[in-house]
Amino acid sequence: MSPLTLFDFPLPDLLPLLIEEAADQNHWVPFTDPKTGQKVHGWLIKRLEPEGDLTSQKICWWFKEFLYLHDADVRPRFYWQTPGTTIRYHVDRGTQCSINVVLKGQGDYIAFNDTKTRYDCALLNTQVYHGVLSPETGRLLFKLSIFDRSYAEVLDVLQSTLSCRQAVFEDLRLTDLDVRPRYSKNLARTGLGTHIDHDRIVGINFNLMDEPATIHLRGKPFEYESAVIDVGTTPHSVVPLQTERLVLKLAIRAPWATVIDRVSPWIDSVYDKTYVSALKDNEQHLVKL
Ligand SMILES: [Fe+2]
Ligand SMILES: [Fe+2]
After folding, report:
1. Rounded to the nearest whole angstrom, what is the distance from the C-alpha of residue 28 to the centroid of ligand 1?
2. What is the domain partition of the chain in residue ranges?
3. Could you give the CA distance from residue 264 to residue 151 in angstroms, rounded to a whole number?
4. Which one of the ligands is nearest to 33 CA?
5. Which ligand is nearest to the CA of 288?
6. Ligand 2 centre from 133 Cα, in Å?
7. Is the distance from CB of 172 to CB of 137 less than 8 angstroms?
8. Domain 4-157: which CATH class?
């Protein structure tokens, strides 16, 4: 089994925010080997709590949902490897496997035993000997360290989740479009004020709760289990409920007409057959999320 599995980072919109977060100089400390107590020259770490409002923490939560790791010990952290510093061969202490995203220095290699590889985003078996050869320009890494699941276990879920996603995209004829899945969650008694999503996106929403999901479009409520919604053009809101709301949303950066055409075999009721997607000048200020 390869110790490294490449995949596309599923939340590309968040990468600039992640880099911005890493640029905050607080909490960076020299990496210290927990076994020897020695500092590793030229290697810095920024450890974060798993939960909170930082981008790194939101991504940690998202991956826990995505990979059914709800009760797993997953911790986000950044690493900065200064130019010319080599991380010698080692196995991680405690971290069984990890999801790594290279934020700067993608041209540099990680070596597993004798195999050198470049990657942007990957699941890694950190219990196999590995090292990072001296980067030329410095290497910034975001890592979700998974402490209590093996590489094989996480890989199994990752592969089935990605192939399931691929199958859904094929069924909906969306494979050639820019589709970014995300979960949208409202805790009990929280809602979302009236807004329009950025980039004129079209949403395909799937309700994941027992009770139907409700979205208000121009103040009018619509209950749904699954729906195609012009959320990048139409003002919409979510009214607070007594219960949680969890929706899987495919955010699609394509014209409304294209999306409707693609998913038309699956549509069984259309609210307004005369609808034409057009962002109104006097509603531009609502484009927020
Ligand atoms: Fe490592
Ligand atoms: Fe929205």
Report:
1. 18
2. 4-157, 172-270
3. 40
4. 1
5. 2
6. 44
7. no
8. mainly beta
Ligand nearest to C-alpha 182? 2
Q: How far apart are CA 44 and CA 282, in angstroms?
A: 49
For CA atoms 19, 23, 29, 32, the dihedral sign is positive
CB atoms within 10 A of CB 68: 14
Strand positions, DSSP E, 167-289: 179-186, 192-195, 202-207, 213-217, 220-224, 226-229, 236-238, 245-252
Helix residue spans in 131-274 (DSSP H):
151-171, 256-263
Q: Which two structure tokens, joined as six digits, stand for 241?
A: 């409920």
Bridge partners, 215 (sequence order): 222
pLDDT tens, N- to C-terminus, the chain (289 residues): 999 999 999 888 789 999 999 999 999 999 998 778 888 889 999 999 999 999 999 999 989 988 989 899 999 999 999 999 989 999 999 999 999 999 998 888 999 988 999 999 999 999 999 999 878 889 999 999 999 999 999 999 999 999 988 899 999 999 999 888 888 888 889 999 999 999 999 999 999 999 999 999 999 999 999 999 999 999 999 999 888 899 999 999 999 999 999 999 999 899 898 999 999 999 999 998 7
Q: With b meaning 16 or more CB within 10 Å and e meaning fewer, what string describes 103-122? A: bbbeebebbbeeeeeebebb
CA of 103 to the centre of ligand 2 (A): 28
How remote is the CA of residue 127 from the centroid of ligand 1, in Å?
A: 8
Are both 4-157 and 172-270 of the same fold? yes
Question: Sheet harboring 74-81: ordered strands across?
Answer: 4-6, 121-125, 97-104, 139-146, 74-81, 39-47, 28-32
Q: Is the dihedral of CA 25, 99, 146, 56 positive or negative?
A: positive
Q: Report phi then psi at 275, rounded to 5.
A: -60, 135
Q: For 172-270, give the CATH class.
A: mainly beta
